[in-house]
Amino acid sequence: MLKLLIFTLFLSFTFLKANLLQETIDKAKEGSILKLSKGVYKGSILINKPLTIIGKEEGVIIDGEGEGTVVTIKSPYVTLKNLTIQGSGDKHENIDSGIKISDSKQSEISNCIIRDSLFGIDISTTNNSIFSNNYITSKKLDLGLRGDGVRLWYSNDNIITKNKLVKSRDMVVWYSHGNEISENFGEYNRYSLHFMYAGKNFVRNNTYQYNSVGIFFMYSKDTIATGNVVKSSLGTTGMGIGLKDVSNFTLKKNTVIYNAIGIYIDRSPFEPDTNNWIEENQILYNSEGIHFHSLSENNIIKGNYISGNIEDVVNDSRGARTYQNEIVGNYWDSYEGFDKNRDNIGDTPHKIYQYADQLWVYNPTVKFFYGSPVISLLNFLAKLAPFSEPIFLLQDEKPKLKKQGFNYDKKEQ
Q1: CB–CB of 108/130 below 8 Å?
Q2: CB neighbour list of residue 70: distance below 8 Å, 6 or more residues apart
Q3: Could you tell me if 229 and 250 lie in one domain?
Q4: Do 305 and 235 fall within a single domain?
């Protein structure tokens, strides 16, 4: 009886440690479809051939047991669906991930839950693939120590859609072009979407909230961002949408609301004889609606709805040349002119000045007192009787008097 018990325990221990899923993958022919039943399968899986793995039901878990990357894909034409991937290692230098895919094309990862994994999906040198409807969260670490939820690296012409990233670090798109990033949701991350050296990407209808930064574009060009909602970016420097050294960008019909900075423009457009188009956006209830930093001219800022911000425009450097942007046809709730002929265009331009008394422009710590009666009084007195000549920032030649086109409240519903 004792010998039988010992033998049974030995078989159970061997079954738990054996990587039966990897053995099945190794034996499968190219193009096979593996349908997994509910259960926990040992991770550290390598897929190096065209293959499909589908969870037949809920509760199909591939567990990395806290070591390395859970699923590694090094092949084109690979599909993963309806799986829970969990338990990667915690080494940043190895980019320990739930799923790591490289040297691939026409692959798909969809309807997966990726949790307790340092990095979520690490995508490199992968083209023409789909990543959709995945839920991704990192390990329970401080924000800066988490890995990126989705990481694109030298990967082009992919579709990343309807994913949900929560309590991860960033979603990064680096050296990657022609990707569509649409209808994703990001919450409690650092950068919900961060581009660097990337071009011709299409960013539409994403929702990002309670992150440090919503969308930030750096050293990039030829990208369109439209229909995105970025709200409640956290901290005194929380940012909705940022542009740094970018050219030939279009920001259209986005909503940035309840952020410290709505739209941040730093040395953009960067390339000579180019423009950026910032049109028909809603810039609402931010501490700063539009913030200029460094030389930023030749932006076309047109048809936006700018309302409820503590400061509509801030320029933190004397060399930004904000007045050399084309600014026309925006609605400003701070406009004090008239429309005698009722054509919905103000009879006089809307001019914005920066007063020397506005200490918070050059002293970020004063931002803590935004909205307080004391600051409101100082702001009123500075405009009523400035101690020095104010700095002219910009003017809208044809300010609109009525909001037109689209409605944030309806979009929220």
Answers
A1: yes
A2: 43, 44, 45, 62, 63, 64, 85, 86, 87, 88, 97, 98, 99, 117
A3: yes
A4: yes
Residue 72's identity, in one-letter code, is: T
* Nearest Cα to Cα of residue 65 among 94, 45, 92: 45
Q: Is residue 94 part of a domain?
A: no
Q: Would residue 40 count as lying in a domain?
A: no
In this structure, is residue 276 part of a structural domain?
yes
Same domain? 380 vs 239: no
Same domain, 257 and 376: no
Task: Tell whether 238 is covered by a domain.
Answer: yes
Domain that holds residue 368: 361-387
Question: Can you give the pTM of this predicted structure?
Answer: 0.87
Per-residue pLDDT 10s for the chain (413 aa) are 433 333 333 333 333 445 899 999 999 999 999 999 999 999 999 999 999 999 999 999 999 999 999 999 999 999 999 999 999 999 999 999 999 999 999 999 999 999 999 999 999 999 999 999 999 999 999 998 999 999 999 999 999 999 999 999 999 999 999 999 999 999 999 999 999 999 999 999 999 999 999 999 999 999 999 999 999 998 777 999 999 999 999 999 999 999 999 999 999 999 989 999 999 999 999 989 999 988 888 999 999 999 999 889 988 876 678 888 999 999 999 998 898 998 999 999 999 887 654 555 555 565 566 566 666 666 666 666 665 567 778 899 999 987 654 455 444 43
Provide the 3-class DSSP secondary structure of residue 7: helix
Q: Total domain count for the chain?
A: 2
Residues 280 and 367 grouped into a single domain? no
132: part of which helix (H) or strand (E)? strand 130-132
